[in-house]
From TrEMBL:
NCBIfam families the UniProt entry points to: PRK00174.1
GO molecular function, one term: propionate-CoA ligase activity
Family as reported in the entry's similarity comment: Belongs to the ATP-dependent AMP-binding enzyme family.
Gene3D superfamilies cross-referenced by the UniProt entry: 3.30.300.30, N-terminal domain of ligase-like
Source organism (scientific name): Prosthecochloris aestuarii (strain DSM 271 / SK 413)
Transmembrane segments: none
Name of the protein described by the UniProt record: AMP-dependent synthetase and ligase
Length: 631
């Protein structure tokens, strides 16, 4: 008999070691752990201390060894190139082992960092799993980031090798990844020893003879590498995410805890059995891609799909349903913004009706708040449960969800449902008092966090403590605000820092401001996230010019838009800047971004008590009205 949510959740909080040891038993360990949870050095908790394992072994070889070698592990479907491929667990294991051997023969060793800057092609997964196989630490950088962002990551994690492709394809545009990579290496202080480039026929890259090899050249003469046993707490990967400063944070994930959490989550959160097809339509550059395109489905023995396309325009808003039908997808995961894009082009769901979705059981949404209108539209047209769940790059998997494999509860629109077992979620105020049902406050998670969550920030333990663990000692600060209702349902309402969420992509307004302020005519700038029907939020910039500037305003605006695109990347979707005389500030000089955002969104706001000059808010309102806000 399966246990109720309450029983399982209580057990996970009161007896986490027993709870997670049982989950860990289902995976392969070369050496069992000495201690399930090492709490000797909080907040640096270590799961399965002393254990030795290999994530790649558990994701691929284990299934082959258990007789499932001929089952499909990976499907690659690329509407932008017309290519469709399938790989069994055995075929993919062999490809990964060979590439891992090639990396070893080029000097890549356990603990070395490898940056992967690739589009959604099978080689991206081969590269990630090959690193895991030999204990190298991968750091995947999203292809929509520009050279400068890539350079910052190169300087931070100092990769021995960078693996990339000659190009990516974005609908009908060819993106020259190699040019972006070469420029990033030029900008970076640290230089990798080698770059491995997967040449694609849509655009062949020029190679630097001293530094670059093609993917094919790299494999010449290579021998397959076996899996190397690594410590449970050895890093599997670093994934950079936006922080409150312009500098991204390198979230470090371990091997053992991550593997256990990923595996557990497939059955319990997503309610999916080995052998079924699971599809997360995200990108390997994001945490959703790491966890639910690559690691969790493979660890659980599911078929996973690499989709090189978009929800609309590749070729039409029916592509998701075509894939669900063609591969018999049971559980599908995407971002609400993708659904808004589909709803806009196919409001009546005509495309949905063209496909047989009888295998499709559940839709999961995350990455941003799932607005009730989108959830209801999806429910009406798909006739399956639509589950909003909340998580972050830092946690690596869901903090709150309506766990479909435990005891599915009622859906409450606007809520990500209850805390997932392992996460002791609380809402507190600045005095660290726990708030009652329905009271809005800071959402925190009491220590210890469950397995799979971040270990630290790469080479920045102090920054890790300052960013997440010091405001509320004993708790992890999520930087999300919200409330919990009388039934334990969690409502995520807003970020408490300057992170904005553009089409499910997490970006820092601070980083965009740094680009605006780099313009020689700009004295000061502020960026806010304004509500957008499609992307959830889009950034709008405010510029205060230096005195005596006579450059035409339109030219300054054009230049700062170019700066952001060139230095951060097109995914920032920065298309609008307004020149104002001054910015509203508190008496201590803090820019009142939250109030500006409310004005732009047409929301009620209370006049901040500490405002320096209330009249400036009227100027901001007029400036926003001049460009059509509030919408
Ligand atoms: N490589 C290079 N460029 C990329 C890129 C990549 N991997 N991904 C996006 N870009 C570019 C796009 O080409 C676009 O450039 P443009 O300004 O020249 O048109 C820009 O970045 C913005 O892209 P995107 O955010 O994808 O917006 P869009 O308007 O092209 O499409 C959606 C809108 C809603 C369809 C799209 O954002 C989407 O599919 N979102 C889902 C996001 C998601 O899965 N997030 C993961 C969290 S679960
Ligand atoms: P990322 O690290 O890119 O996954 O972004 C994490 C942030 O996205 C969270 O801190 C939230 O602000 C937001 N987010 C993710 N999922 C949800 C959700 N289901 N509901 C509300 N906000 C979400």
């Amino acid at each position: 008999m399966s246990l109720s949510y309450d029983t399982l959740y209580t057990e996970s909080i009161q007896n986490p070691e027993k709870f997670w040891a049982e989950a860990a038993e289902k995976l392969h360990w070369y050496k069992k752990w000495d201690k399930v949870l090492d709490s000797a050095n909080p907040p640096f908790y270590r799961w399965f201390a002393g254990g030795k394992t290999n994530t790649c072994y558990n994701a691929l070889d284990r299934h082959v060894d258990e007789g499932r070698g001929n089952d499909t592990a990976i499907i690659y479907d690329s509407p932008v190139t017309g290519v469709k491929e399938r790989f069994t667990f055995r075929e993919f294991r062999d490809k990964v082992a060979l590439f891992a051997g090639a990396l070893q023969s080029r000097g890549v060793r356990k603990g070395d960092r490898v940056i992967i800057y690739m589009p959604m092609i099978p080689e991206a997964l081969i590269a990630m799993l090959a690193c895991a196989r030999i204990g190298a630490v991968h750091s995947v950088v999203f292809g929509g980031f520009a050279s400068h962002e890539l350079a910052v990551r190169i300087d931070d994690c100092k990769p021995k090798v960078i693996i990339s492709a000659s190009c990516g394809i974005e609908r009908d545009k060819i993106i020259d990844y190699k040019r972006l990579l070469d420029f990033a290496i030029e900008l970076a202080h640290f230089k990798p020893e080698m770059c491995i480039i997967r040449q694609r026929e849509q655009l062949k890259a020029q190679l630097n003879e001293e530094r670059d090899l093609t993917w094919k050249q790299t494999l010449l003469g290579a021998e397959p590498a076996p899996c190397i046993p690594v410590e449970s707490s050895d890093p599997l990967y670093i994934l950079y995410t936006s922080g409150t400063t312009g500098k991204p944070k390198g979230v470090v994930r371990d091997n053992g805890g991550h593997m256990v959490a990923m595996h557990w989550s497939m059955e319990h959160v997503y309610g999916i059995k080995p052998g079924e097809t699971y599809w997360a339509a995200s990108d390997v550059g994001w945490v959703v891609g790491h966890s639910y395109i690559v690691y969790a489905p493979l660890l659980n023995g599911n078929t996973t799909i690499i989709f090189e396309g978009k929800p609309v325009g590749t070729p039409d808003p029916g592509v998701f349903w075509r894939i669900i039908e063609e591969y018999g997808v049971s559980v599908f995961f995407t971002a609400p913004t993708a659904f808004r894009a589909i709803k806009k082009e196919d409001p009546k769901g005509h495309y949905i009706k063209k496909y047989d979705l009888s295998n499709f059981r559940t839709l999961f949404l995350a990455g941003e708040r799932a607005d009730p209108a989108t959830v209801k539209w999806a429910e009406e047209h798909l006739q399956v449960p639509v589950i909003d769940h909340w998580w972050q790059t830092e946690t690596g998997w869901a903090i709150a969800a309506n766990c479909q494999g435990i005891e599915p509860g009622p859906i409450k629109y606007g809520s990500a449902s209850k805390a997932v077992p392992g996460y002791n979620v609380k809402v507190i105020n600045h005095e660290m008092e726990e708030l009652g049902a329905g009271k809005m406050g800071d959402i925190v998670i009491e220590h210890p966090l469950p397995p799979g969550t971040m270990m630290t920030l790469w080479k920045a333990d102090n920054h890790f403590i300052q960013s997440y663990m010091s405001t509320y000692p004993g708790y992890y600060q999520t930087s999300d605000a919200g409330y919990i209702d009388e039934d334990g349902y969690i409502y995520i309402m807003s970020r408490t820092d300057d992170i904005i969420n553009i089409a499910g992509h997490r970006l820092s307004t601070g980083a965009i401001e740094a680009e605006l302020s780099a313009h020689p005519d700009v004295a000061e700038s502020a960026v806010i996230g304004v509500a957008d029907d499609l992307k959830g939020e889009i950034p709008v910039g405010f510029l205060v010019l230096k005195s005596g500037v006579d450059t035409p305003h339109s030219q300054i605006i054009k230049h700062v838009i170019e700066y952001v695109r060139e230095n951060i990347g097109p995914v920032a979707s920065f298309k609008q800047a307004i020149i104002v005389e001054r910015l509203p500030k508190t008496r201590s000089g803090k820019i009142l971004r939250a109030t500006m955002r409310k004005i732009a969104n047409g929301q009620e706001y209370t006049m901040p008590a500490t405002i320096d000059d209330p009249a400036i808010l009227d100027e901001i309102r007029e400036a926003l009205q001049s460009v059509g806000y509030p919408k």
